User: Fold this.
Amino acid sequence: MKNKYSIISLIKNSFSYHENWQKAWGNPEPKKEYDIIIVGGGGHGLATAYYLAKKHNIKNVAVIEKGWIGGGNTGRNTTIIRSNYLWDASAGLYDHALKIWEKLSQELNYNVMFSQRGVMNLAHNLQDVRDLKRRTHANRLNGIDAVYLNTEQVKKFCPIINTSPDIRYPVLGGTLQRRAGTARHDAVAWGYARGADEMGVDIIQNCEVKGIKRSGESVDGVETTKGFIKTKKIGVVAAGHSSVIANMAGLKLPLESKPLQALVSEPVKPIIDTVVMSNAVHAYVSQSDKGELVIGAGTDDYVSYSQKGSHEIVEGTLNAILELYPIFSRMRMLRQWGGIVDICPDASPIVSKTPIKGLYFNCGWGTGGFKATPGSGDLFAHTIANDEPHKLNAAFNLNRFVSGDLVDEHGAAAVAH
Amino acid sequence: MFLIHCPYCGEREQSEFKAGGEAHIVRPKQPTELSDDQWAEYLFMRKNIKGVQFERWVHTHGCRKWFNMVRDTSNDEIKAIYKMGEKPPTKYK
Assistant:
């Protein structure tokens, strides 16, 4: 049993100088066999294990992680959460996640610092205006809160934006989703890890998957750096490395892995109390609770697993940021990093069974997977436990690339690729 | 960011080029005969290798010619560059 985190436990632990806090999760050696093995200990993988144990009562589960949990894209993203996607299938998927986010801290007894500060998407040309208005209407038909703002309303909502008509890409309007916002990315991974560990899930770190053993058309287990582990069901949630795992099983995926960069500034006093994204000029910015500006840049257009991107991508983003927010002209950037994102041709994810029995993939989230973490875990757990997709992720199957029933979300993805 | 030796123009910055994805995917000779699975394979499925990969690149802001490249995607090191129509270097196969 985990001790409950509360104001009382905080006070109690202060008497022992915070040196006797219970471990949030263990460090077990792998067993010989599990009912289900999840490959990848990021937010999505840990959430999957958590919901397998909680909702499907499957507790003989291991999460296998090459490095440390939450050390991949979970710890590298810009923490933006929203659900204002165009198509019905995506609206269902992302809003399912957003609804879980709204209660997640209470459910996990772990503060994920979910902050519904709103996300604003800007329009810079006539086509943007038409696209965003269309998307606003589509959102409202799907029960997702969305409003269209004109230039004055944009300025009123975020006063530091330069709305002068004389800039290279003037602000012609924007959309606002007030339920959207940010969360603390590490806390999501840690909260799910703690919850899953409490229910008996083994979280095995520093254990790399080296091969997937098959007998005929079904899986037998995984070869890892800590030896062979037997299982009948494998759920792969390996983000940028999904194709690498797929190749081990003799499977090809419609993915390309590319570097996506982000950067943070030195911390300053509160200056921007929302998230502002701009697809056309490729700049998005929010402010962390520490006071750093969190800035997302774009992807490079070549395949790379190097976790570093090109300098001119960062330069292009900062040019756009400075034109939109002249007030930031003397800010100094503190850190810059890259993550490897797995991009699908239609900018929508794959949460699906595969032609190999017992092998499931949750991948292709590309540049925007963080927002979906709780929903993705919930639906992937359902898919693995029942060997059938939930109705909310049925459209996101691998077979859509054969049937042609794609879910084109390039417009709502907000990172051009 | 890295430098690319264009086979026509010489060494230039990577930002002058555009990546065109996996190389040596042959366009189907008889498109009307293809099954949906074969179309999916041709259009969407990619090896997406971590390691040595064969790719197409184009010198967009230069001669605008296409060429092939052998590159290690784990560290962005370029192993070889050869023109369209030339045989890929066998030692990386």
The interface with chain B takes residues 241, 243-244, 247, 252-257, 300-306, 310-312, 342, 345, 401-404 of chain A (CB under 8 Å). DSSP finds ten helices and 19 strands in chain A.
